[in-house]
Amino acid sequence: MYKYDDFDEAFVRERVAQFRGQVERRVDGSLTEDEFKPFRLMNGLYLQLHAYMLRVAIPYGTLNSRQMNQLAFIAEKWDKGYGHFTTRQNIQYNWPKLPDVPDMLEALADVEMHAIQTSGNTIRNVTADHFAGAAGDEIADPRPVAELLRQWSTDHPEFQALPRKFKIAVSGAENDRAVLRAHDVAVQIVEKDGQRGYRIFVGGGLGRTPMIGKVLRDFLPEADLLPYVEAVVSVWNLLGRRDNKYKARIKITVHEHGIEEISERVEQRFAEIRPSFTGVDQKLFAEIKEHFAEPAYKSSATDAFDAYKAANPAFQSWADTNLAEHKNSEYAIVSISLKSHGATPGDASSEQMRTMADLALRLGHDELRISHEQNVILPHVHKSDLPEIYNTLREEGLATANIGLISDIIACPGMDYCALATARSIPIAQEIATRFDELKLEHEVGLLKIKISGCINACGHHHVGHIGILGLDRAGVENYQITLGGDGTEDAAIGERAGPGFSADEIIPAIERLVLGYLDIRDSADETFLQTYRRLGMEPFKAILYPEKAEANAA
Amino acid sequence: MPRAFTPKVITANALLEGDAIWFTENNEWSRDIADAELITDETHADLRLIEAQAFADQIAGAYLADAKQTENGPAPTHFREEFRTRGPSNYHHGKQAEA
């Protein structure tokens, strides 16, 4: 894992000291809210419906046990004993008090963490495949690339006042687990003729104008990464629509100017600035890579795992659902579900965080990941340790066997917390999960991704949910629109709106109808919801969702 | 045609805790909307908002929110403002836990 050098350490400490002074001046009245707001946002502090909210960056979703324990400590000491993991691999605290925030930031700095650039019109936390470094299908661990981009983008003087926020994701595999195509810029590690390089996507994004990212360069040589990405951001920095915040994201710039023109401008800018990158970045990249050396894998028999699986059906169910293939065949990648039925998606209590940290330290090479699907990953677990992991998780309510299933729902905080929300998301997620648990159907239904956003900004990724739910305010009442057929993987697609929205009372029965209806029309138990949708299109699903209308049409 | 003015309260977040607060007739800030001044006149509303915003070292982000008169005093008319009087629905936190 990357370790702060003296420069990083000094920079983060200095920012904490500055913010401490700014908070003091706000509290004593020398700064107005208008003056203070940009400062607090630069440090990830939002003002929400009921309280402040502190958003802490977890670079590329990677944590060690010490950091996870510190997140638990912060939640306990200055918040209400829990944290909320987000779709951008961050953690949010929902109840900090303004005078405590500098101490919280100091506590974060103690474990090489901060909340810088988690808000504002800057380059935000760089995200990555949560199976990075462990997945069998990757060309290389994407995290050194993400760390290089993080260092380059943090406090970059040219990019502190961009037209709008800018999100970068990185992956090292063809199977896209990082929603690359929904990012402003995405970097995919590829190989061509034995040479390593990058495929660069641009102009993806969700929100009110969802767009699938386009390939800007199919193969970029490794050494050109920073100048090229800098060229992309600087072209947009000049062209981006500062006159209209709804048109300011790079997806609109790409859409308005066309990918060819953007590409020409980027190449031109790239040619200008390339000579100024004299290789320091590549030296730094080489150093960063050393921080991400593979763990010292142990090697021992795994038959105890197989025996335990055969003897314990609950463990087998968990293993079948929550384990993914590791590149080392004696190992597994463990996904810890933060979606126990009826709980708030992405929330973990301090005790749960400590349990996960302890397991990572003892049995997981001291590594944890946060996934954009709001779960926690232990990327490197020897199979012989899985029974102990499972039993420990079970005691803390962390062994729900539902990864990728209908109750593994992404939900933004919605109007239970967020000042921007137009409706609640969390209760909808809780009720859907509870309902399908009662029906005991979720394993039969199989792979199905439901994603819920409480407003058009789409933090809950509803556009790329197989079933997307968007909460809106319709004439003063919460109303939920359903989209179908979205996909956040390498086959990315934006979901299509099914029809009129549903009230809060109607949405759970509507989802139940939809899923039961799918079971009737799928061609076999192996055909997923998304595959059935792709085979049959919207019409049969519409008929299921709106039976009265279908009857009227038939009459 | 200009829209008819609907009754309003002035609300904000407390500077230190971020908790929802409402502006009273006595120029104080209350944690309970029932104590708020219900404003029925648009000109008066604009003036009171300016006066409310002067409490810069106690509050953040004052705005006018729709409200109605009830037996117990002013109450919200929109669900967003209703949530602000209560707290989140997933945990017993916020105002509902303090009552």
Automatic annotation (TrEMBL), chain A:
Q: Which GO terms describe its molecular function?
A: 4 iron, 4 sulfur cluster binding; heme binding; metal ion binding; oxidoreductase activity
- Tell me where in this chain the Nitrite/sulphite reductase 4Fe-4S domain is found: 119-271, 408-545
The domain of life is Bacteria
List each copy of the Nitrite/Sulfite reductase ferredoxin-like domain by range: 52-110, 345-395
Q: Where are the transmembrane segments?
A: none
Entry keyword annotation includes Metal-binding: yes
InterPro entries hit by this protein: NIR_SIR_4Fe-4S, NiRdtase/SiRdtase_haem-b_fer, Nit/Sulf_reduc_fer-like_dom_sf, NO2/SO3_Rdtase_4Fe4S_dom, NO2/SO3_Rdtase_4Fe4S_sf
Q: Which UniProt keywords apply?
A: 4Fe-4S, Heme, Iron, Iron-sulfur, Metal-binding, Oxidoreductase
| Stated name of the protein | Sulfite reductase (NADPH) hemoprotein beta-component
Q: Which organism is it from?
A: Cognatiyoonia sediminum
What high-level taxonomic lineage is stated for the organism? Answer: Bacteria, Pseudomonadati, Pseudomonadota, Alphaproteobacteria, Rhodobacterales
Automatic annotation (TrEMBL), chain B:
Q: What is the lineage of its organism?
A: Bacteria, Pseudomonadati, Pseudomonadota, Alphaproteobacteria, Rhodobacterales
Q: Which InterPro entries match?
A: DUF2849
Q: Name one Pfam family in it.
A: DUF2849
Ranges for the region named Disordered are: 67-99
Species in which this protein is naturally found: Cognatiyoonia sediminum
* Protein name per UniProt: Sulfite reductase
